[in-house]
């Protein structure tokens, strides 16, 4: 069974981890979660409130990471998913997380990124000349990294599939599954 890796950490958005995790399992993939350390992760729930200028955050579910970033061999996986939440804000500083992202881009393997996930891609230096979606307030981060921001829920640029946030889970994963199929993995 082909394996897909999810790169995340504490304060990841619950829905952005669990939806691809379960949807990809449903499609027949083995899915593993990698984090800075192999430990129980605390996810969060972001929601939108009419009177707020930004999202709110509450504690979400917990889940065990299968493996630490440093112990991951990217050649063991056919694709990678980078969900959002606040985790990408700090895992983008992890050299092994950046190494893993670069490895998937170097071999043109399928990559899915959602919400704040493109922060890790920007830190890894793989967005130059690429088009990606992200949480809309990250357009400046995408452009600063040399990418083109596109506001959409299922933005596909070659091997990269991206979306804005958890409300895009359905179209984002549908597009990612199509890229996986096209890649023959």
UniProtKB/TrEMBL annotation:
EC numbers for this chain: 3.5.1.124
GO function term, MF aspect, one: protein deglycase activity
Keyword line: Hydrolase
Leading EC class: hydrolase
Keyword rRNA-binding annotated: no
Keyword Hydrolase applies: yes
Chain ranges of the DJ-1/PfpI domain: 3-178
NCBIfam families according to UniProt: PfpI
Family from the record: Belongs to the peptidase C56 family.
Name of the protein in question: Protein deglycase
């Amino acid at each position: 069974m082909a394996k897909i890796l999810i790169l995340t950490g504490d304060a990841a958005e619950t829905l952005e981890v669990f939806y691809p995790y379960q949807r990809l399992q449903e499609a027949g993939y083995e899915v593993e979660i990698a984090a800075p350390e192999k430990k129980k992760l605390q996810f969060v729930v972001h929601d939108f409130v009419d009177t707020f200028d930004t999202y709110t955050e509450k504690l979400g579910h917990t889940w065990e990471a299968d493996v630490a970033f440093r112990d991951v061999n990217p050649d063991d996986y056919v694709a990678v998913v980078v969900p959002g939440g606040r985790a990408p804000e700090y895992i983008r500083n992890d050299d092994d997380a950046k190494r893993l992202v670069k490895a998937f881009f170097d071999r043109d393997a399928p990559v899915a990124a959602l919400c704040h996930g493109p922060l890790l891609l920007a830190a890894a230096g793989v967005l130059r000349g690429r088009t990606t979606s992200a949480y809309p307030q990250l357009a400046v981060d995408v452009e600063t990294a040399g990418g083109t921001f596109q506001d959409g829920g299922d933005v596909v640029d070659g091997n990269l599939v991206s979306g804005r946030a958890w409300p895009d889970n359905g179209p984002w994963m549908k597009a990612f599954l199509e890229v996986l199929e096209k890649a023959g993995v």
